[in-house]
Please model this.
Amino acid sequence: MVTMKKNALEALADSIKEYILTAVENDAINTIFDPAHAKYWRMYNELKTKQSSRSLKMSIKKLLTSVTNDNLQQSTAEINYA
Model:
């Protein structure tokens, strides 16, 4: 998996390098910045939110499975009600 990520990053870096070199060669530096459309950012943010949510659920599930009744009874934490 690490090798695939490394290869993907290297390919991306090569693509960016070629993109910039082409812009320089064609005296088109001002065209380099071309942000993605809002729909692609929305798709990216939705994916990151799903990944974060999944990670949070897994962390909570792992935490809850490690808590036992014995642990709760031995806890010295106090619960205060307002």
Notes: Residues 36-66 form one domain. The helical segments are 2-25, 38-66, 69-74. The chain has two domains: 1-34, 36-66.
